[in-house]
Structure formats: structure tokens, C-alpha cells
Amino acid sequence: MNEQPADFVLQTRDVPPRATFALEQAGVHPLLARLLAARGVRAADELDDGLARLLPPTALKGAVEAGRLLADAIAARQRICIVADYDCDGATACAVALRGLVLLGAERGRVGYVVPDRAVHGYGLTPAIVDLARERAPTGRPDLLVTVDNGIASLAGVAHARAAGMAVLVTDHHLPAVEDGRTVLPAADVIVNPNQPGCSFESKALAGVGVMFYVLLAARAELRDRGAFDAQQQPRLDTLLDLVALGTVADVVKLDANNRRLVAQGLKRIRSGRMQPGVAALFAAARREPARAAAFDFGFALGPRINAAGRLADMTLGIECLCTDDPTRAAELAAQLDAINRERREVEAGMRERAEEALQHLQLDGAPPAVALFDESFHEGVVGIVAGRVKDQLHRPTFAFARGADGALKGSGRSIPGFHLRDALDLVAKRHPGLLLRFGGHAMAAGCTLDDRAGDAFATFAAALRQVAAEWLDAATLTRTLRTDGPLAVEWFNAETVALLDAQVWGQGFEAPVFCDEVRVLQQRLVGEKHMKLRLQHGTRQCDAIWFGRDQPLPDTVRLAYRLDLNEWNGQQRVQMVVQAAA
After folding, report:
1. Is 392 within 8 Å of 352 (Cβ atoms)?
2. Alpha-carbon distance 486 to 506, whole Å?
3. How far is CA 77 from CA 73, 144, 168, 188, 284, in A?
């Protein structure tokens, strides 16, 4: 698929002068002060990433009750089964739960997990997963089921578990189910979810792994109050923060202040060499240096390797990699995950070619406001990635579907700012009763299953999605906009600035800096047949640049939006621009 994006406009971020001045007066580097102020930081104390600045667990609805439930289960030597999910957030949340419960005193042989097979069981705590836990959980028949990164919409599964005599703790961050216009929650013993009704927790963007980490903090506090240990001897749950950071970034949740602190703490541990053997093995498999770890590594190197297991194979591989304490075993599992990820890329490439064929009749000026794709050859585990690629190319909300083993159509969608994908699915479901067997997700990413027994489900869904998008989206929203941080002064174009920026936590909702300057193109040539290598005149100096996925020549003078990067070759480092767009 052609990587070159749709046309867009460059928009310079507003930089509040008072906030910039306050940050500079507090000792923040002048360039960094400008960047942070443009992202909503108003005072230096907001940059304190210490654990003491985390929002308290007591503010998260259900966390205290969950802590009591887990403390009771540990004290009674109950069998606890974690019900995981098949993405990186779910895998890291499962590993955090397993490791954390053992740290808090649970016996290893009485804590286990099950993870759904994407193609066989579908998503969430279904009755089939409950039965799987009863029959095959390594602990034996569980007394307590703990969902991680799922469960908030699992009405039938929770009811099935409780009817079978099992207690259920739901930890999740997705939006609850809606029936007849009202929110419906499962009848679990305890629910912990910042997005459930009545929860005043300030960080609604907490990932599934973050929710589980908070539940463990609450359980530790409960056990401490019961005299299981004192404050000086209490288990060090911060040893789990490398996993929390990985799952948070990989799930592409908004990096609000609380999430940035969690990620920053995890990065500090990794950079200092304090990480789980599986995390270290994944860095090695991805050929990344832990000492220079950045959030980018979680999202584009480690996360995809974990996710690949859930997409094409069995997420048990990913969870075992994160749970093992044996470095040799971790390396073996990381190598398997790396191989599966390479296979995933090959499958994705074929699907993207077929998606390109389906899109050839779409000219952007006349393109529908939303796109739906389906091909009988599509792989269920990779449709989300393809939807994301098409969304990036066309700047349209996009769903991609594959046929499941049960004959239903399994879809994954990605959206653009201004179009709440999960709410759009809710409206489609209301207008076409029975079309969607189930759906869920967030504003920017969602999934659904279509009843295709009549053979016309995809066409009906595609038309319904286009109709909702036509009603909700205007021309401004459908215009691809790239927010930039304006010009970069020549004196900041150096390796020290790259190191300064790389040391920060950037991500969803707190985007990495993109600068914008007018430059003169001195040289340009294609490398690898699809990337443009450039030599530019930037102010008073010359510099190198690379534009990945660009195969069209640039004019002699052009305005470029770019990231700053270090290009390492033959032991030498040179600062270069990584071009994002031209205007």
C-alpha cells in the first residue's frame, strides 16, 4: 500500500508565554519549556514523576474493595485465576497480576491464568472462558476469577461464573455495555474501572495494566493494615513498573500526567538495568538498547512482538515471556515472538495489497467519510493493523473485517480525532437491530462482530457507518492536520537536544515534538526504492534528512515538518531530520 498520506495542513501549537516563563524560571531548558507549555504543562511541579505524585488508589472506585477481596483470598489460600486478554495491555496486566499476587503472599501454585484464543473464544470473559478456567486452569478449579483488560461488558460470562460458585473481580478500562440507552454493568463481586459510572478517578486514560497495578497497591495497603507486614518490609510493587510502562504505551492510551509518571518510572528502571528477564529479552530481540530506552521502544519494538502472539499464535507465549525469571527461557520465548512478528508483517503486507486494490476506486476528494473493508482472505488477527494503516493514509475512520471460524465477521476499527468509534457502533446497533452481535472499545479504537448468516452484513454495516460519519463529520474534521512546534533554532540542532528530547515521555495525547522550517533542497535521492534521502540547507547550516515512504521528488524550496533524530552509521552519529510532512 502506498504510504504517502493524504494532503493535510500544518498547524503550529499555541505556546502560552506565562507558562513558558514559569518553567524557564524553574530551571527547565528553554526549548523544553516551550514544548511542555504547548502541551498544557503550567508549572514545574507537574514534571515531578515521583511515585509519591501518583493519584492515590483510594480515589479509584472499587479499588479498596478489590484490595479486601484479594487480601481475603490470599489469607484463605484460595485458588485465583487471572483471565487475560490477547493484546500487549492484557498480557502485561496478566504478568503484573501474577507477579504482584505472589509478592503479596499468594502461593505460586494457587495463582494461574487463562487467555482466550482470538479465533476460538472471542474477546472478554465469555461463558466459554469461564468453563475453560474451571476445567484447565493450572490452579485447579478457581475460587476467584480476576479479569484484566476485559470484563466490563461481560454480562453473561460474569453471571455464568457466579452461578458456578466463583467470585469475580473485574479490572478493566474499556467503556461499559449500553442497553436501551442505559449503562449496564456485570454482576461481579467488585468492579474496578475508571470509566464506570460514579468513578471520580482523574485519570480516565488508565490502561488495563495500570488498573491492575492500582488494585495491587490497594491490596498491599489492606494487607499492611491487617499486620501482614509493616511499611518498611512491605513488598516492592515498583518492581512491576517496567511491565506497567510497556502495556500503557503499547495500548496507545492518552499519556496524561498520571500515565506519564507510570511510564517514566518504568523507563528509569529499564535504563538502570532493573527489569524483568522477559523485557530484557525483548529489547535484545528487537536490537534495542535498554540503557537508552524510550516510550517509542514500547510502542514500535516490544509491543508489536507481544501483540503478534495474540494475532497469529497464542498469547500464552507473550505472557510466559513476561512471567519467567529464567533469562535463558526468556530469550527463547522472545526469539519465538520475534519470528511470529516477522510472519505477522508478511501477512499484513498481503492484506494491505488487497486493501489497496479495494481502495483504488476511492479518490480522496470523493471518498466517503468512513471506510469499511472486507476480504475473505483477511486474517482476523491483523485486521486492526490494516484498519490503522488505511486510516492513516486516507484520514478516515476505518473498519477492516475478517471471517471468523464461526462464520461471523470480526471487525476492528481505528478512528480520527472528532469521531468516537465506540459511540458510532452504538448508533449503528440501534439503527440496525441484530446486525452487531457484540461491540466495544474506545473513541479511537473499537471492535465488533457482525451476524452474517444472510450474507449481507458487511454491506449493511459499511453503509450504516458511512451514514453516521456523514452526520457527525465536517470538512474541517476530515482535513488531515499535523500540529507542529514551529521552527527549531539552528543552535538547538545538535545531539544534546536529541538526548534532551529522548529523555522525556512522549506519546498519545502528549505527542513527541515535530518542528517546522522552510529549507532548501540541495540533494535528493531514493534509497530502498521507497524512501527519500535528502541533503538540506537549514538556516546557516546543512543537514541530512530522511522521509520514509516518500518516493516523489521535492521542490527546491519547501516547508518541512520533521522530528529530530540521531543517525548512527559506522560508529559515527549525525543529527538528521525525520520528515513527517511537507507544505
Report:
1. no
2. 17
3. 6, 11, 16, 21, 38
Task: List, in sequence order, the alpha helices (H) in 26-62.
Answer: 30-38
Q: What is the pLDDT of residues 391-408, one digit of tens each?
A: 988 899 999 999 998 899
Map grid coordinates 537508552 to a residue. Answer: 292
All structural domains of the chain, each given as residue ranges with its CATH number in brackets, are: 8-13+481-582 (2.40.50.460), 51-340 (3.90.1640.30), 361-478 (3.10.310.30)
Write out pLDDT tens, residues 439-460: 988 889 999 999 999 999 999 9
Hey, how many other C-beta atoms are within 10 angstroms of the C-beta on 225? 11
Let me know if 416 is exposed, middle or buried by CB neighbors in 10 A (0-12, 13-18, 19+).
Answer: buried
Question: Minimal CA–CA distance to 442: which of 89, 103, 100, 45?
Answer: 89
Q: What is the average pLDDT score of the chain?
A: 93
Residue 71, strand partner residues:
none
DSSP 8-state class, residue 4: P
Q: Which of 328-342, 354-368, 490-504 has the lowest mean pLDDT?
A: 354-368
**Residue 352 pLDDT greater than 90, yes or no:** no
DSSP for residue 479: S
CA angle at 541 for the pair 535 and 547, rounded to the nearest 5°: 30
Strand partners, 565: 576
| CA nearest to 121, candidates 152, 157, 148 | 157
Q: Which of 432, 382, 391 is nearest to 411 (CA)?
A: 382
Do the bridges between strand 515-527 and strand 541-547 make them parallel or antiparallel, or are there none, so unpaired?
unpaired
Helices 241-250 and 303-312 sit at what angle, rounded to 10 degrees?
70
Say how far apart CA 126 and CA 145 lie, in whole Å: 12
Query: With 60 as the cut, is the pLDDT of residue 265 above it?
Result: yes
Q: What is the mean pLDDT of residues 149-166?
A: 96
- Integer CA distances (angstroms), 2 to 113, 360, 548, in order: 41, 11, 11
Torsional class of 455: left (φ above 0), alpha (ψ -120 to 50), beta (otherwise): left
Identity at 365, one-letter amino acid code: D
> Quick one: how far is CA 338 from the chain centroid?
19
Q: Is 434 exposed, middle or buried (0-12, 13-18, 19+ CB in 10 A)?
A: exposed
What pLDDT is stored for residue 366 in this prediction? 62
What value does the CA radius of gyration of the chain take, rounded to a whole number of Å?
24
Q: Residue 1 pLDDT more than 90?
A: no
Q: CA separation (Å) from 498 to 113, 276, 289?
A: 42, 28, 16
CA 13 – CA 416 distance, rounded (Å): 19
Task: Decide: helix, strand or coil at residue 563.
Answer: strand
How would DSSP label each residue in 110-144? Answer: GEEEE---HHHH-SSS-HHHHHHHHHH-TTSS-SE
